[in-house]
From TrEMBL, chain A:
<dbReference type="InterPro" id="IPR051449">
    <property type="entry name" value="ABC-2_transporter_component"/>
</dbReference>
<dbReference type="InterPro" id="IPR000412">
    <property type="entry name" value="ABC_2_transport"/>
</dbReference>
<comment type="similarity">
    <text>Belongs to the ABC-2 integral membrane protein family.</text>
</comment>
<dbReference type="InterPro" id="IPR047817">
    <property type="entry name" value="ABC2_TM_bact-type"/>
</dbReference>
<feature type="domain" description="ABC transmembrane type-2">
    <location>
        <begin position="118"/>
        <end position="358"/>
    </location>
</feature>
<keyword id="KW-0472">Membrane</keyword>
<dbReference type="InterPro" id="IPR013525">
    <property type="entry name" value="ABC2_TM"/>
</dbReference>
From TrEMBL, chain B:
<feature type="domain" description="ABC transporter">
    <location>
        <begin position="318"/>
        <end position="547"/>
    </location>
</feature>
<dbReference type="Pfam" id="PF00005">
    <property type="entry name" value="ABC_tran"/>
</dbReference>
<keyword id="KW-0067">ATP-binding</keyword>
<dbReference type="InterPro" id="IPR017871">
    <property type="entry name" value="ABC_transporter-like_CS"/>
</dbReference>
<feature type="domain" description="ABC transporter">
    <location>
        <begin position="4"/>
        <end position="233"/>
    </location>
</feature>
<dbReference type="GO" id="GO:0016887">
    <property type="term" value="F:ATP hydrolysis activity"/>
</dbReference>
<keyword id="KW-0547">Nucleotide-binding</keyword>
UniProtKB/TrEMBL annotation, chain C:
<keyword id="KW-0813">Transport</keyword>
<dbReference type="Pfam" id="PF12698">
    <property type="entry name" value="ABC2_membrane_3"/>
</dbReference>
<feature type="transmembrane region" description="Helical">
    <location>
        <begin position="333"/>
        <end position="355"/>
    </location>
</feature>
<dbReference type="InterPro" id="IPR051449">
    <property type="entry name" value="ABC-2_transporter_component"/>
</dbReference>
<keyword id="KW-0812">Transmembrane</keyword>
<dbReference type="InterPro" id="IPR047817">
    <property type="entry name" value="ABC2_TM_bact-type"/>
</dbReference>
<comment type="similarity">
    <text>Belongs to the ABC-2 integral membrane protein family.</text>
</comment>
Length: 360, 558, 364
């Protein structure tokens, strides 16, 4: 390992990433724009939902119940329906998320102090939304009882279940992963296509130096972008931060190293830039899907749970979410750091070996 | 009959003036060369004739049609072969031909006949099922030509069809084109190579967007009658050339085997130099006239080489012992044996696909030999990589420059990669910048440079660590003669300092600069000798190109 | 339009698809991978959520309530004796919430005080909502079973998907993602490649006209898209157990309508960016990500802020996903399908007009 050779290459990589203002813009702006749009769009909350109400009962208790439902926070529009056929149509055409059918004897049963049934027809096409809406309805139904609410409910770490508190820190991990992945996936493939890679290989530099030099600038760019997005979460979206910034920074750094390792692996085996782009895409999307971002890892089949343990993003998400909201202790952070370190070591060594094999 | 009429054509791209006030006529049934250095506007003019670009000012008529308003009719009567011919690399030879036959509406009845004729014409018959991407450069060009000839156009436009093509294939191309003009077709052949231009019936000579000459090549050449000489010297030919170029009245000079060819200013006698034994008047060539028209060749001094330290002689610098490389069943290089002496230029020639690049790559350590050994600077590259690599410089055909870095940053990068640092690094870069006159361009991107400057920059990067051995892989492909002379001035200067050079090339005038030439064919070296002796093998007065074709064709077919 | 030239261009393009490994990767390998992941890895289903139950009362009633929590398929109950032990488990994510049944449970029952405490892990709001909803459901049923309260009983029925499996709406939605990749990403890449390799210049100099060249590109990818749809549908039905309640005819019809704007978008991108890298970036940013995030595939459009909601109207995948859900899970609801097809064709027309204007038969 020779310092001036390494320095020259690191400088070259940084310059080819950042010298051109247009390239800089393409690198920096889309992720920030994505952060802005997706933090609002990527929500599993139920808001502004359309519901249908088919009320066959004219009694007071029915009126009270219907009014409580139609004024609930998650309801946006109410379609009153007056017969079974119309109700079914509305659901079939996907116009309403759910239909509430209050039978004739509802008020009579309520006044008699008996259990009063209400039919709820939910659109199972939107299974998740429908289930959330049903749980809201249940809370409303329970509150109709004269007795005091039998449950004291508290959401730890995020009392109002603000969705952005979950999405924004997670997006900072996902988006900075994609930046680092694309930057490194292209780096060797581009040099190969332009012929500069041969020029590098005839110079005295070693494969380990080439890989290290390609690694550091990409880690730096990913780290800076990740930090910007984490700062946006802190300052712009005002997500509370309870953990240690130092540990989070360390975890972000290690996370970037492991992602860059994966990117360089893709790059080392691709022949053209097109293959590298599609390869980064074909690896990156499944990594996000299995990371536990969209859905909890525990919901997956066991084999996929194992696979997800090899994905650096899975561990980083635990650390970043924990650092923001849960005051995550160091021992837990550590238990998620070492799997990332293993991935980084394996992929970086793999990429070095692939380059080495081309040389000899 | 006139096939193309150009009237006061002008075209600008942004601030660059590509063509300025071009007028002229191109005759049917004749081969017209469109000649000029890199960036002269040849491609722009050809694209206008093909209807792919509109003129800013002026007008043109091609086969009686206006390309701007009658584009679709024009496409029927014009055949066009772009610089990088648009072959679909993942389609076979036959599939490519069929596609263009269908697109150009070849009559079904003529199908068989036409395709058979084209395949025979191009000698591609045995390769109909091969993917176009797997063809050699020469075969690709021939297939490209065939694709633009599936129907018989009135006008055929060829944009630098000879680039990267070996002499044997080039001969085939000429044969094909000449047969076509015989049928009354107007053929326009754009080129930066003047040997090709000389064979054209008419030429249009462009320089910096202006038309400098139109007429028969002979007309231009005859102006130089009595001004060209061949000098036979006793001293080293490279030293002699440098001496000749500094002599008063010398317009241009090149090495031709063991002799020097000079062009003198009008009215000047041949230079009187002590070590010259014989001065033989020779007939002028188109290249001489071209250089003369553009203001003469560059001088013979290389400020770059002047700064280089002397390299101590060390006997055999490169030696290949039974160097063999197989790709599956295919033997790309077959027991290659040769040695290169210190301070020598060895040229590696051969048809496309003969194994030149494979051999070259093994010597540079880019490819591992299947068997045999390559010793460079006394080291086996596959074992002592880093050490030996510090002693070799490499310049690839594609000029491996980082397009995203400025010129200055490219230089600094290559200095750093070769372990230079601090003041030494600064000084070395300064020397390169001074030696190659790059100062005004330090902050531009390599992509914005002309081909000539790119080549200089690539040379600077390859020489940053002052290697005693220099590998050049088709270093002047697509470059015009003036730039090529400049390049060779530097190389000659370096060799004079004791640097050893290995070069692959398709250009015979480049081969003339070599001390020895190794001719490769089908993975083997079939001849290894000095240029003059190789020429002698093909008979009295044979050119290098004739020698090349002679030696290749003497090989038994497989 | 000359049918002979068109046919030649179509067969050329088809040969290239067959011989290009990256086209095969995008059109056949990635779809299978994505379908598999959406069927098994991405699941919003609430099954076996880890729930701590802190049982501080020894009474029979409290124990029967605790047993009811264990009895539902939604929770996997981790019994905990002390409240102190729960918090670290919540922090490390091993528990998604816990229920506290206090020592004075019976007395509270008698006095009508709040009975139990439910604490969820709010870092994942969606799971927290489910934990809250299902614990409440368990308690309401327990109260009513023991005749302790007469509540309003919500008799819920999930139409089209009675087992409430997210797979059933994610797998059809994934088909839209796959088609976006084939239509937009692949088309943008292959046209950009023709510019990069110089074959476009050769094509432009032949008598072939622009509409022929464009159509020659589109028809094979149109076919490829339909083949990929059929393949994905067969996988969905036979491997991933998703019902196809509508007809194949309706499915192919809406797919065809979706391919119009998807391919059009690919053409527009490649007409503007004649370079594969930029084309890929643009296709990802304007095609793939909106199809993923702004189409109602994963995230409910109604819940988005108004400006983003308006934006979703120009995302063709939005209409396609709605149609796909309907064809797979509901049936051929023509009134809905026609409306969606109309919207997709409208967007497609706009794309094609832009592509036609931007692709000129010249190199300027």
């Amino acid at each position: 390992m020779n310092a001036s050779r390494l320095l020259a290459q690191i400088l070259k990589e940084l310059l080819s990433l950042l010298r051109d203002p247009r390239a800089r813009a393409i690198l920096v702006l889309p992720p920030l724009l994505q952060l802005m749009i997706f933090s609002f769009a990527a929500t599993l909350e139920v808001r502004n939902a359309t519901i249908a109400v088919f009320n066959e009962d004219s009694g007071q208790p029915a009126e009270t119940f219907v009014s409580a439902v139609t004024h609930a926070g998650f309801v946006g529009r109410v379609i009153p329906v007056f017969d079974q056929q119309h109700q079914d149509d509305v659901i079939e055409r996907g116009e309403a998320l759910l239909a509430l059918h209050i039978p004739e004897e509802f008020s009579r049963l309520r006044l008699a102090g008996e259990a009063a049934p209400v039919q709820v027809i939910l659109d199972g096409q939107q299974a998740n939304t429908a289930q959330v809406a049903l749980s809201y309805l249940q809370a409303i139904a329970m509150a109709q009882a004269d007795a005091e609410e039998p449950i004291v409910l508290r959401h730890a770490f995020n009392p109002n279940l603000t969705y952005q508190w979950y999405v924004v820190p997670s997006l900072s991990g996902i988006l900075s992963m994609f930046i680092a992945l694309v930057v490194t996936a292209l780096s060797i493939a581009r040099e190969r296509e332009l012929g500069t890679f041969d020029q590098l290989l005839v110079s005295p530099t070693t494969p380990a130096e080439i890989i290290l030099a390609k690694c550091l600038p990409a880690v730096l760019v990913g780290f800076v972008m990740g930090s910007i997005m984490i700062s946006a979460a802190l300052l712009l979206f005002r997500v509370p931060f309870t953990g240690s910034l130092l540990w989070l920074a360390g975890a972000l750094g290690l996370f970037m190293v492991s992602v860059v390792g994966i990117g360089l692996m893709i790059s080392a085996v691709s022949k053209t830039q097109q293959q590298a782009i599609l390869g980064a895409f074909a690896i990156g999307v499944p990594m996000v899907l299995m990371s536990g971002f969209a859905t909890p890892v525990e919901n997956m089949p066991l084999i996929l749970q194992w696979v997800s343990q090899a994905i650096p993003l899975t561990h980083f998400l635990v650390i970043v979410q924990g650092s923001f909201l849960k005051a995550i202790p160091e021992s837990v952070v550590l238990s998620h750091l070492w799997p990332m370190a293993v991935t980084a070591l394996v992929t970086l060594m793999g990429a070095t070996l692939v380059v080495q094999r081309r040389l000899s | 009959m006139t096939a193309i009429v150009l009237e006061n054509l002008s075209k600008t791209f942004g601030k660059t003036l590509a063509l300025q006030d071009i007028s002229g006529q191109i005759a049917a049934g004749r081969l017209t060369g469109l000649v000029g250095p890199d960036g002269a506007g040849k491609t722009t003019l050809i694209r206008m004739m093909a209807g792919l670009l509109g003129p800013d000012e002026g007008s043109l008529r091609v086969a009686g049609l206006d390309p701007v308003t009658q584009g679709s009719a024009l496409a029927e009567s014009v055949g066009y072969m772009p610089q990088r011919f648009g072959l679909y690399e993942d389609l076979t030879v036959l599939e490519n031909l069929r596609l263009y036959a269908e697109l150009r509406g070849l009559a079904r009845a003529d199908y068989r006949h036409t395709l058979d004729r084209l395949l025979e014409f191009t000698r591609l018959g045995p390769f109909t099922d091969r993917l176009a991407g797997r063809l050699s450069g020469g075969m690709k060009q021939k297939l490209g030509l065939a694709c633009s000839l599936v129907t018989t156009p009135d006008v055929l436009l060829l944009d630098e069809p000879g680039v990267g093509v070996d002499p044997v294939s080039r001969q085939d191309l000429w044969r094909m084109v000449q047969a076509l003009t015989g049928e009354g077709m107007a053929v326009i052949w754009a080129t930066a190579y003047l040997e090709e231009a000389e064979q054209c019936e008419d030429v249009l000579l462009l320089n910096e967007g202006q038309l400098r000459f139109a007429g028969r090549p002979k007309e231009l050449t005859s102006r130089l009658e009595g001004r060209c000489f061949s000098l036979c010297g006793s001293s080293d030919k490279r030293a002699l050339l440098a001496q000749v170029l500094t002599a008063p009245g010398v317009r241009d000079g090149t090495i031709e085997g063991d002799r020097i060819r000079v062009v003198m200013d009008a009215g000047c006698p041949a230079p009187d130099i002590e070590s010259v034994n014989a001065v033989i008047p020779v007939s002028p060539r188109f290249e001489d006239a071209f250089i003369d028209l553009l203001g003469g060749g560059p001088g013979g001094q290389s400020p770059l080489a002047d700064q280089m330290p002397e390299v101590a002689s060390m006997g055999d610098v490169v030696s290949c012992q039974n160097l063999t490389r197989r790709f599956g069943d295919f033997v790309a290089a077959d027991s290659v044996i040769f040695r290169v002496r210190s301070g020598e230029i060895l040229g590696l020639l051969g048809p496309n696909g003969a194994g030149k690049s494979t051999t070259f790559k093994m010597l540079c350590g880019l490819l591992k030999p299947s068997s045999g050994e390559a010793i460079v600077a006394g080291k086996d590259l596959s074992r002592f990589a880093t050490d030996a690599k510090l002693r070799l410089g490499y310049m690839a055909q594609k000029f491996s420059l980082y397009g995203l870095l400025s010129v200055r940053q490219n230089l600094a990068f290559y200095a750093g990669v070769y372990g230079l640092r601090g003041r030494e690094k600064k000084e070395r870069i300064r020397q390169m910048v001074d030696g190659l006159q790059l100062d005004s361009l330090l902050d531009s991107a390599p992509d914005q440079l002309s081909l000539g400057f790119k080549q200089r920059l690539a040379l600077a990067c390859a020489l940053m660590h002052r290697p005693p051995i220099l590998f050049l892989d088709e270093p002047t492909s697509g470059v015009d003669p003036i730039t090529r002379r400049e390049f060779w001035t530097h190389i000659n200067g370096l060799v004079a300092k004791g640097v050893t050079v290995l070069v692959t090339t398709h250009f015979m005038d480049e081969a003339e600069y070599c001390d020895r030439v190794a001719l490769m064919h089908r993975g083997r070296i079939i001849a290894l000798d000095s240029p003059d002796r190789l020429k002698a093998r093909a008979g009295q007065g044979a050119s290098m190109e004739q020698a090349f074709i002679h030696l290749i064709e003497a090989e038994p077919d497989e | 339009m000359n049918s002979r030239r068109l046919l030649a261009l179509v067969s050329k393009e088809s040969l290239q698809i067959v011989r290009d490994p990256s086209a095969i990767l995008i059109a056949f390998v990635l779809p299978v991978l994505l379908l598999f992941l959406f069927a098994y890895a991405v699941s919003l289903d609430i099954r076996q959520v880890h729930l701590g139950v802190v049982l501080q009362s020894d009474s029979a009633r409290a124990q029967s309530l605790a047993a009811d929590f264990s009895g539902t398929p939604y929770f996997r109950v981790v019994p905990v004796r002390h409240r102190k032990e729960v918090t670290p488990l919540l922090v490390s994510g091993e528990l998604k919430g816990y229920v506290l049944i206090p020592a004075d449970f019976d007395r509270r029952l008698f006095r009508g005080d709040p009975l139990i405490q439910v604490i969820t892990d709010g870092t994942q709001p969606n799971t927290a909502n489910f934990v809250a909803g299902y614990t409440r459901g368990v308690l309401v049923n327990w109260l009513s079973d023991h005749g302790l309260q007469a509540p309003i009983r919500l008799d819920a029925r999930f139409w089209f998907n009675p087992e409430v499996e997210t797979r059933k709406f994610l797998v059809p939605g994934a088909i839209a993602i796959i088609m976006t990749m084939i239509g937009t990403l692949l088309t943008a890449l292959v046209v950009a490649r023709e510019w990069e390799r110089g074959t476009m210049e050769a094509l432009l100099s032949t008598p072939a006209r622009i509409p022929e060249i464009l159509l020659g590109k589109l028809l094979p990818y149109f076919g490829l898209g339909l083949v990929a749809t059929m393949g994905s549908t067969l996988l969905a039905i036979h491997i991933f157990d998703v019902p196809l309640r509508g007809s194949w005819a309706a499915l192919l019809l809406v797919s065809s309508c979706f391919l119009v704007p998807a391919l059009g978008q690919g053409l527009v991108i490649s007409a503007l960016a004649r370079n594969q890298f930029i084309a890929a970036q643009a296709a990802l940013f304007s095609g793939f990500l909106p199809a993923f995030l702004l189409s109602g595939f994963l995230f409910e459009i109604d819940a988005m802020p108004a400006p983003i909601r308006w934006l979703t109207h120009i995302v063709p995948a939005r209409y396609f996903i709605e149609s796909l859900h309907s064809v797979f899970l509901v049936g051929d609801v023509w009134s809905l399908l026609l409306q969606d097809m109309f919207a997709m064709l409208g967007l497609g027309t706009v794309m094609f007009v832009i592509a036609r204007v931007k692709t000129r038969k010249s190199l300027e």
